[in-house]
Design brief:
alpha+beta, rod-shaped
């Protein structure tokens, strides 16, 4: 089929469904929507940057949290070791104090014995050991007295030696207590420093967790806003489609009367080309919007690409297009939206009449304007990765009777 004949046939086939480009009310509504969208572009771009910053910062924050947890574990072991050292010092101090008390009791007892001995000597008129010996009445008495004096002297010496030993022990215990107390004070001071460091690290880790939770909550709230925006755009598409459908019905009646005769004359002459055309299009009269047929994401439930994409995919993603591939109208109609949004990026919506629309998203540039009539195969824009996209591809949707359906029903399974 030649390009001229194909264009003529498409003009005849779509004439009944095409709406004139001078619908004042619908055009005003579209212009208002575009003005509102343009006014929000700066705010939406800033929101995209914020979400990107949150996503890139989460991994780094988690690594920092892991490092803080490791430091906390080391410091906690150091604090536990210091607490064990403090407990040991306290136990040794308690034992030394107990030994000191016992030594002091023994010292008091020996001192009392010494005092009793001195009082006894005073009561006896300060009699010394020689006087006891000189009062012996015989040599045998002298030997007896000598043994007695020797025992008394040994007893007195033992008392004095024991008293001196106890005093030395008490002095040593006091020195040991002093050293233990100094060691305890140093350990307590070091433990307080480590405990303060541990508390600071724990506070830093807790604060980090709070910030992560706040950022995650804010990012989730922002994502909900973007989802709501996408739904709002879809609702607006449906509303505009319904408005155009009412006007299209009136235009269709007029166009059918004008096209009927031309169609009848061309039908036989172009039947072969028409058969070829039908074979190239899907069962619903759609053609592939790009040359690639590689499906990278199907219609319906899926994992969110990059953590930003929808988990309930309302269209299909066609990959293998790179940047700058031409995007064609899958079906003839009227462009009702050509604008930029945070979620779809550069996108175009074409109405095919009676609540039937197609949507082409994430394009690098748009080459048509709202209100423009297009034929099947006309270029709408160039492929890209604008909006919420993780790489160059075309997001393609089909809406029939106000409901988005799986485009592969008409296009086939793809590659």
């Amino acid at each position: 089929m030649t390009k001229t004949l194909l264009s003529a046939l498409l003009a005849v086939l779509t004439l009944a469904a095409m709406i004139p480009t001078s619908y004042a009310v619908t055009r005003d509504e579209i212009d208002t929507l575009i003005t509102q969208a343009n006014g929000l572009q700066d705010e939406q771009a800033a929101l995209d940057q914020q979400i990107t910053a949150y996503s890139s910062g989460i991994a780094e924050a988690l690594e920092q949290k892991a490092a803080l947890d490791a430091e906390i574990a080391v410091i906690a072991e150091e604090v536990a070791a210091l607490e064990a050292k403090i407990a040991d010092c306290e136990e040794r101090i308690y034992a030394a104090e107990d030994d000191l008390r016992q030594a002091q009791v023994k010292e008091a007892e020996k001192y009392e014995q010494f005092c009793q001995r001195v009082r006894a000597m005073e009561e006896q008129g300060r009699m010394n050991y020689w006087m006891i010996l000189f009062h012996a009445t015989s040599f045998a008495d002298f030997l007896t007295r000598l043994d007695f004096v020797s025992e008394i002297m040994q007893a007195d010496q033992r008392v004095m030696d024991d008293l001196r030993t106890l005093q030395e022990q008490i002095a040593a215990k006091r020195e040991e207590l002093k050293e233990s107390h100094q060691e305890l004070e140093a350990a307590n001071a070091e433990c307080q420093v480590k405990q303060a460091e541990l508390d600071a690290q724990r506070e830093a880790a807790n604060q980090l967790i709070i910030e992560l939770e706040a950022n995650r909550a804010e990012a989730e709230a922002d994502r909900n806003i973007l989802t709501e925006e996408a739904e709002r755009i879809q609702e607006e598409i449906l509303r505009l489609s319904e408005t155009l459908a009412r006007e299209e019905e009136e235009a269709r009646i007029r166009a059918e009367q004008e096209a009927a005769e031309a169609y009848r004359l061309m039908r036989e002459r172009m039947s072969a080309e028409l058969d070829d055309f039908v074979m190239s299009a899907g069962s619903g009269g759609y053609i592939w919007p790009v040359s690639s047929h590689r499906i990278t994401s199907t219609f319906g439930g899926r994992a969110s690409p990059g953590g930003i994409g929808s988990t309930n995919h309302k269209g299909i993603d066609i990959g293998g297009v790179g940047y700058g591939s031409t995007v064609h109208a899958a079906k003839g109609g009227v462009v009702i939206i050509s604008q930029y949004s945070t979620s779809y990026g550069n996108f175009v919506v074409v109405s095919h009449g009676s609540g039937n629309t197609t949507l082409y998203a994430h394009m690098s540039s748009r080459l048509v304007e709202a209100g423009q009539a297009v034929s099947q195969g006309d270029i709408l824009g160039l492929t890209g990765s604008t909006g919420h996209s993780t790489g160059p591809h075309l997001h393609f949707e089909i809406t029939e009777n106000g409901t988005r359906i799986n485009p592969l029903i008409y296009l086939g399974s793809g590659d």
